[in-house]
Amino acid sequence: MTNAEVCALGRANYTENYSQFPLAIRSGRGIVLTDEDGKEYLDFVSGIAVNALGYGDEEERRALLEVLDDGVLHTSNLFYNRRAVEAAAMLNRLAGSNRVFFCNSGTEANEAALKMARKFGSPLGKTTVISFHHSFHGRTYGSMTLTGQEKYHKGFSPLVPGVKYAEYNDIESVRAVMDETVCAIIAEPLQGEGGIIPADPDFLSGLRELCDRYGALLIFDEVQCGMGRTGRPFCFQHYSVTPDILTLAKALGGGLPMGSALAFGKAADIFSPGDHAATFGGNVAAAALATVVLSRLEELSAEVARKGEYLAEGLRAIAARHPDKVSAVRGLGFMQGLDLTVPVRAVVSSCMEEGLLVCSAGYTVLRLVPPLITTCAEIDRALAIIDRSLARVSL
């Protein structure tokens, strides 16, 4: 089928909950995607921070072929499987955590974290969770309630009770709502959908101190900012603040659906048999890809730290050339954003016309989350397209 035919078939059959671009992807190699008409695109979306190793990675291919040759794609959690056990051990080593719960997505990982927090606090009369304005934690009911953005709540009341919101990077606003009923605070060390906003170091250390003082759990949501994207294996490692629960997904499964909630210290033994489950959690094929990603995570993180600064320098140069159209450059590693004063979707569309895929975050931010294997030469090509696109888009 042609690009147009695939898009038309999708519009006729999908539910109308996405505002999709008229582009149908057929294949990919490295960080280049090809649509059904044969046009190539430099990919700085990577499936929204999912495809860490790009496309056509040989180790991932071999891992999947081995699973197919074994003939078992799924076992359920009634039994162990070697690949999921190996992935869990690798996660605990890299993060310093003690236990891992596997699921299928970021929203499920945050649901698991919410249940851990409520089970931990309920015997002590602690059931309140503090989250933050402009946060994003997922689309299922618990995680949607934790998401501090009204646009995601509209039309879905009543939400899950017992959630309060504070201001991100404002520790005094947290102190104002903190009390003995709080069982957990959940925060992204680098807010993604809210506009690519890194946490201040004092803010995260302040959250840790408040949780310790009030006997609450500290949950870090690294669904988007984890897995090497910021130049460390996990974003919290930039801050020397360790959470009690860490949620991950996106890049974890190497392109297949996979999420996890990592438990540290006092959170490690909260769950008992029967408390929570996920039929496909630790799926054999997804876990096989996860072990590939995790085996390369430290090396990739070091490269992202270096190349991420190169990307940020290029974005700052673009901002200097377009001071009327770019109000700020924010981010860490390969999770960068340009805060724009021009319509962000117009810039996204202009870049797409030139063969570059980028996306938005929040209402005004152009988001760049390329595969972790992206080279400096590919960064230069992307920056040139963004520069030209900004020049074309009117105020």
Structural key phrases:
globular, 4-stranded mixed β-sheet, 2 domains, 395 residues, Aspartate Aminotransferase, domain 2, 7-stranded mixed β-sheet, Aspartate Aminotransferase, domain 1, alpha/beta, 39% helix
Q: Summary?
A:
Helix content is 39%, strand content 18%. It contains 13 helices and 17 strands.
Q: Would you write up a description of this structure?
A:
The mean pLDDT is 97. The strands form four sheets. This protein has a seven-stranded mixed beta sheet, sandwiched between helices. Strands 1-2-3-15 form a four-stranded mixed beta sheet. It contains 13 helices and 17 strands. The chain folds into two domains: 3-56 and 298-392, Aspartate Aminotransferase, domain 1, CATH 3.90.1150; 72-295, 3-Layer(aba) Sandwich (Aspartate Aminotransferase, domain 2). With 395 residues, it is an alpha/beta fold.
In the CATH scheme, the class of the largest domain would be Alpha Beta
Largest sheet: number of strands, sense, barrel closure: 7 strands, mixed
How many E strands?
A: 17
Residue windows where pLDDT falls under 50 for at least 5 positions: none
Superfamily (CATH H level) name of the largest domain: Type I PLP-dependent aspartate aminotransferase-like (Major domain)
Number of domains: 2
Distance between the termini: 38 Å
Q: What fold name goes in the CATH topology slot of the largest domain?
A: Aspartate Aminotransferase, domain 2
- Range of helix content: 25-40%
Question: What is the overall shape?
Answer: globular
List the helices and strands in order. Answer: HEEEHHHEHEHHEHEEEHEEEHHEEHEEEH
Tally of contiguous helical segments? 13
- The main sheet orders its strands as 4-12-11-10-7-5-6
Kindly name the structural category. Answer: alpha/beta
Rounded to an integer, what's the Rg over CA atoms?
21 Å
Strand-residue fraction?
Answer: 15-25%
Instruction: Give the integer mean of the pLDDT values.
Output: 97
